[in-house]
Design goal:
CATH topology of chain A: outer membrane lipoprotein receptor (LolB), chain A
Distance between the termini of chain A: 44 Å
Structural class of chain A: mainly beta
Strand order of the largest sheet of chain A: 5-4-3-2-1-12-11-10-9-8-7-6
CATH superfamily of chain B: Lipoprotein localisation LolA/LolB/LppX
CATH class of chain A: Mainly Beta
Strand order of the largest sheet of chain B: 6-5-4-3-2-1-11-10-9-8-7
CATH architecture of chain A: Clam
Strand content of chain B: 35-45%
Radius of gyration of chain B: 17 Å
Strand content of chain A: 35-45%
Largest sheet of chain B: 11 strands, antiparallel
Helix content of chain B: 10-25%
Largest interface: A-B, 37 and 37 residues
Largest sheet of chain A: 12 strands, antiparallel
Helix content of chain A: 10-25%
Oligomer: heterodimer
Number of domains of chain B: 1
């Protein structure tokens, strides 16, 4: 049993090696984590600028209906001209794609899109593993998710809040920035997401409309 | 990048239908196609404002977009959204470009969808010269109520799952298009209302050249 515990601990230590170092853990009672996530059910409509390698860019309109309590998500992507390219929802962990025109019709795309939305709008489900300061002075809380992935939520002096998703091995997969989050009346007024995938992509999201429902 | 190829089959039929029915002049019942072809020759330019209401299950209320539309014979088009998302599609002298507004300026959309637009626009040009009845993509039915209502139903499988119907309402008085309603499915409907339509007023060529 002891050997198993040592192995798990070693694995955790090893897996954290490429994560950004947290240099100064705050005193007990001073561990308020940045919280850019939804506190109540909201409908958000964003203009989304998609940036792909090769200087390829385009825009779509994204609609998100998300409930942080039930963790249910509905979403749609449409062109400025009103054509719905993609529409899906996840309830009780069950993903249902209601409409997906090529090339949005792969299961992989649907899953990743819902996961991106949940990363952006929902607090991590895991446990806080560590908190403190990053080398640039940002306050940070590090979550360890059930699947072994790491999520860092940090706030900079410039008032941006970032969410970074890392693999269990510490490779960054997503970097979400809520621009000047603490200055805005709505934290989702401008959000940027950068994804590290086989084909990297970035989304620059500008809020068009928001509607809160309460819970 | 093929993402935006998917919207062109939706967008351009709307533009084409707007053009087609705008210059219809009252003989839709008898020999609509022939009459439209004759009337098409009289049209040199069209300009109008539009308001687009997008209704979806996920939306509590329709998402409203506003913009401007310009056409100049034989094949220049400008379809411009002013809000909430500023974007422009221009076709002029055989070239089609799409722009979106970012960082205080218009940026050209580099996705492959622009090329697909060119293909569809060739078809529109055919329609504008009165050859729209050669397009087997839609079956057209006409009903006269207080307005003239035309229902277009896709005939081919190429629009399966994309568009169920398109409904066009024409003013009885001047035969100008009043509304276009595109039903993608029971949960997704786009309604476009055209206002301030002006026919055959000269449009500066810059409208089709300069995105600003």
């Amino acid at each position: 049993m002891k050997i198993k515990a040592v192995l798990i601990l070693s694995l955790l230590v090893f897996s954290c090696q490429s994560l950004p170092k947290i240099i100064d853990a705050p005193r007990a009672g001073d561990t308020t984590c940045p919280f850019p996530f939804l506190k109540e059910r909201q409908r958000l409509i964003h203009a989304i600028e998609i940036r792909l390698p090769g200087n390829i860019t385009s825009t779509v309109i994204g609609i998100t209906l998300a409930d942080p309590v039930s963790r249910e998500v509905s979403c749609a992507i449409m062109t400025a001209e009103g054509m719905v390219l993609f529409e899906a929802e996840e309830n009780s962990g069950l993903l249902t794609v209601n409409r997906a025109l090529p090339p949005f019709n792969s299961e992989n795309f649907s899953r990743k899109m819902i996961d991106d939305i949940k990363l952006m709008f929902f607090a991590p489900k895991g446990k806080i593993y560590q908190s403190g300061l990053l080398t640039e002075g940002e306050t940070v809380c590090r979550w360890l998710e059930d699947d072994g992935k790491w999520i860092d939520v940090s706030a900079s002096r410039e008032k941006d809040i970032s969410v970074k998703l890392y693999t269990a091995e510490g490779a960054i997969k997503r970097h979400i920035t809520f621009i000047s989050a603490r200055d805005k009346d709505n934290i989702y007024r401008r959000v940027e997401l950068h994804a590290e995938e086989r084909t990297n992509y970035s989304l620059v999201m500008t809020l068009i409309e928001a509607q809160s429902f309460g819970n | 990048m093929k993402i935006f190829r998917t919207f062109s089959p939706f967008f351009f039929p709307v533009v084409a239908l707007f053009l087609l029915f705008l210059f219809s002049s009252g003989h839709v019942f008898a020999d609509a196609f022939e009459q439209l072809r004759k009337d098409a020759a009289e049209i040199r330019s069209i300009q109008a404002k539009f308001t687009q209401n997008k209704s979806m299950k996920i939306l509590a209320k329709p998402l409203v977009s506003e913009g401007r539309f310009y056409y100049a014979a034989p094949d220049s088009l400008r379809w411009e959204y002013l809000k909430p998302l500023k974007s422009v599609i221009i076709t002029h002298k055989g070239k089609t470009k799409r722009y979106f507004f970012s960082g205080g300026k218009f940026i050209e959309d580099q996705t492959g969808g622009v090329q697909a637009m060119s293909i569809v626009l060739n078809e529109i040009s055919a329609w504008m010269s009165g050859k729209f009845n050669q397009n087997p993509s839609f079956q057209a039915d006409l009903k006269e109520t207080e307005n003239m209502e035309i229902t277009l139903t896709p005939t081919g499988k190429n629009m399966t799952g994309m568009i169920e119907n398109i409904f066009i309402t024409l003013s009885k008085k001047d035969k100008a298009v009043k509304t276009v309603k595109i039903v993608e499915n029971e949960n997704s409907v786009t309604k476009i209302d055209f206002t301030g339509t002006i026919i055959n007023k000269a449009i500066p060529e810059e409208i089709f050249q300069d995105v600003q």
